[in-house]
Amino acid sequence: MKKATGRKLSLAMVLCLSFTMMLSGCGGNNNTNNAAKTDPPAATEAPAASNSQASPEASEAAGAGSPLDLAMKGEYKGTKVTMFGPFVDADQVKFESSIKEFEEKTGIDIQYEGSKEFEATINIRVDGGNAPDIADFPQPGLLASIAKTGKVVDLTGVLDQEKLKANYNKSWLDMSTMDGKDGKIMAGIWNRSNVKSLVWYPKKQFDDAGYTVPETWDDMMALTEQIAKDGDPAWTIGIESGAATGWAATDWIENIMLRTTTPENYDKWVKGELPFTSPEVKNAVEVMSKIWLNKDYVYGGTKSIVTTAFGDAPKPMFENPPKAWFNLMGNFITSFFPETAKVDQDYDWFYLPPIDPQYGKPVLVAGDIYAMFNDRPEVRAVMEFFTTGESIKTWVQSGGVIAPMNDASLDWYTSESDRRMAKLVQDASTLRFDGSDLMPGKVGAGTFWKGMTDYVSGTATLDKALEQIQSGWNN
Amino acid sequence: MDAQIKPKSSDPGAQAKRTISIKAVLLSLGVLLANIVINGLIFLFFRDSALNPLLTAVLAVLWGVLGVYLIYYTLTWAVEQYPDHIRRRVLPYVFIGPAVIILGWLLVLPALRTLYLSFFNASSEKFVGLSNYAAIFSDHLMATALRNNLLWVFVGTLACVCFGLLIAILADRSSYEKIAKSIIFMPMAISFVAAGVIWKFVYYYQPGDEQIGLLNAIVTYFGGEPQAWTSMLQPWNNFFLIVILIWMQTGFAMVIFSAAIKGVPDDILEAARVDGAGEVKIFFGIMIPFISATILTVTTTIIVFTLKIFDVVMVMTGGQYDTEVVATQFYRQFFMYRNFGYGSTLAIVLLIAVLPVILINLRQFRKQGGF
Q1: Which of 283-302 (A) contact B at CB < 8 A?
Q2: What is the pLDDT of residues A341-390, one digit of tens each?
Q3: CA-based nearest residue to A445, from A58, A16, A139
Q4: Which A positions 65-124 lie with beta carbon below 8 A of chain B?
């Protein structure tokens, strides 16, 4: 026991040293949130950066005009606002150009950080007390589960409700009301929406080949068969998306659900009252499988579905001649199209046709909801800015986004394609929000994605996969 | 230091040496308190400082290095105020104390809290007893995760140890020993995530005719059918992931075995050769027994490693396509599904699985006089 004390001591020494180094490292960069704290001009002393507590300056400022007005006057020059969201690559560029003008005018530096692993990371950051000032949730369901913990700032007292009512359709505002820790709160604001019932196709070649846009599901299947006979798989499908692999499959299921059963059933399904194991849901997956599991209908065969990133899936449509013809995806997918491809000429979309005429022409939409975690005047200003159409004007102009705000002018849409989209939403017999996005995160951003991936990749049988998805509700 | 502890002698001279002066007690307490207060204040200063982050980091490192030195220096000085026999007893604790405290705070406490959480429901509000444990063992996902973990442990460890040993023996006799060993050891320097990215390019599959993934390029060159190696080839995709671990850990095993083999005395080998033993017999009869302790250590190290495997699976497949292991399942449940009960339970199961291996390792260390 007592041998080699010298060695033991030196070992202990090294251990201690390394640990202390680690500790001091922790001490050094601890709580970057506070480091970003700045004194607003009116401040007598820096407010304690406590979440969900309005600092006195903010309420004072509210008297002198809204945070956005003050920001435009340059009140918050030199401050920083951190943002975290799922936009990466092309989307991130578009987002950053849409806020550029605001940053120049106000002097507020919006530091946006995008991550493909957003769904998992945001939870960790919020739990660890390292939440960004503003987070952009593509799934309201995920925000709802975080709102329950009481860590999201209630926007009811932060933003002018009258202005919001004037600028948003009521259903959008209803969807931003969620359960907080003690009662209902307004957990976020909607900034961009997209339409998810669109089948993209290479228009020019499509017309040249003499195909016509299908009006019913049966027409579409017949056309799929026709294209297969002509030597091409009609569909190109990719659901790979890092840790979020599988989400693209949920859009298919939601679209087919709306076309094969009543909107009431759809709502029940989203709330968890209609289980995944029910015949309605199973039938929807089976309808989808008729395309997905047929290797003559899918570019690269079924095995390519889970290995192809959703953003890479459209690529074969833009080869000459096209190697595949159809890609079902929300309108944001145009960000991933080749830059040389022209909207309305090279590519266009047709509405995913109805299956059962009695359910009319349902349209599936989705959107991003921005939530606020740290209440500082400059963050309020940025949040208020995001409630204006102005905040996504450049994005709308570059295509791929539908603005949910009423003050976004239809003239901003630069293509026939986008205008048709806005019209499609207006004329829809049934308008429903993306179901998986509304479900609690553990299902909608959890078991639903994984279950679909398991089913398509052959890990689980259909019944087993549906059971697995449903089990997400129970835990 | 093997002196036996003497029975308490009763002669007065020794008694005088044994008295503890009040001054010493006060001094040592004062030193202890001063250390806590001063370092606490510095910590608070850094935590709330609005300095430039880079400057903060530099100062913090300085504080870390100098602070540690000062803490040890002052505490040692305080202990030296006591009579000899006490000093001998206390000094080791002064040195090991901070490490124990920090380990307790950063490892033991969280482990206990995880254990506590594992008895509660998903939102940690309701006590549910052992039902989380029952649930994860009846859940088929857990079965998959355990099966895959066992695959990793057996296939991964066995391959690493065998290849490591083989290469070490072969390299020992070759004239390219240094170069060969360096090349095989190199992957050790790459982080698992980076290795995952590298191997993604090897296994890459894309629909269509053109294959840019290395493996598929080779397969199609010989007229084969390209495969989605890591996703659709279940359950073989697990082996393709394990290959990454082998690629990385073989070098580690090899280097340690190499050193051990060089320690086998030449005269024994000579004697065996004179007695007419063949090389194979020498290897199994002399070398293996001689380095058995090393083999055990390396094996247990890699077993612990494979039990905890996470990054490779996360980067390559995210645990999809039936490649789930316990650690990825834990991450999924805890951070993605926000089921703190299941997540903590999985973490505890993993801890329990690793414990026996750690214990074997400790026993081994003790035999070798490490403790």
Answers
A1: 299-301
A2: 888 888 999 999 999 988 888 889 888 899 999 988 889 999 999 998 88
A3: A139
A4: 119-120, 123-124
CB-CB neighbours of A311 under 10 Å: 21
| Long-range Cβ contact pairs of B207-214 (< 8 A, separation 24 or more) | B207/A236, B207/A299, B207/A300, B207/A301, B207/A304, B207/A307, B207/A308, B207/A316, B208/A299, B208/A300, B208/A316, B208/A323
Side chain identity at residue A209, one-letter code:
A
Chain A interface test: which of B88, B148, B338, B345 (most A C-beta within 10 Å): B338
Mean pLDDT of chain A: 82
B326-350 residue pLDDT tens? 898 888 888 877 788 888 998 998 8
Is B228 touching A (CB cutoff 8 A)? yes
**Contact yes or no for A351/A197 (Cβ under 8 A):** yes
Q: Identify which of B53, B208, B336 has the shortest CB distance to residue A316.
A: B208
How many pairs of residues across A and B have Cβ atoms under 8 Å apart? 166
* pLDDT greater at residue B21 or residue A359: A359
Comparing CB atoms, the residue among B48, B321, B339 nearest residue A475 is: B339
Of residues A311, A318, A317, the one with CA closest to residue A340: A318
Q: Note whether A11 contacts B: Cβ–Cβ < 8 A.
A: no
DSSP assignment of B289-342 equals HHTHHHHHHHHHHHHHHHHT--HHHHHHTTTTTTT--HHHHHHIIIIIS--HHH
Q: What is the pLDDT of residue B3?
A: 44
> Which amino acid belongs to residue A376?
R
Q: Is the dihedral of CA B76, B78, B81, B84 positive or negative?
A: negative
Does B320 contact A454 at a Cβ distance shorter than 8 Å?
Answer: yes
Q: What is the mean pLDDT of chain B?
A: 84
Q: Among all residues of chain B, which has the CA nearest to that of A23?
A: B64
Single-letter amino acid, residue A160:
D
Interface test with B, best of A50, A457, A464, A469 (most B CBs within 10 A): A457
Determine the distance from the C-alpha atom of residue B19 to the mean position of all C-alpha atoms in its chain, rounded to a whole number.
45
What is the model's pTM? 0.74
Instruction: Report yes or no: A466 and A208 within 8 Å, Cβ to Cβ.
Output: no
Asked whether the beta carbons of residue B47 and residue A27 sit closer than 8 angstroms, the reply is yes
Is B241 within 8 Å of B231 (Cβ atoms)? no
The answer to whether A308 contacts B206, with C-beta atoms less than 8 Å apart, is: yes
Interface test with B, best of A139, A179, A307, A315 (most B CBs within 10 A): A307
Residue A359 DSSP class: G
User: What does B74-100 look like in DSSP terms, one character per residue?
Assistant: HHHHHHTTS-HHHHHHHHHHHHHHHHH
Domains in chain A with CATH codes: 67-193+366-419 (3.40.190.10), 195-365+433-474 (3.40.190.10)
Q: Which residues of B touch A120 (CB under 8 A)?
A: 331, 335-336
What gap in Å lies between CA B198 and CA A134, rounded to an integer?
Answer: 34
Tokens of A350: 């047709």
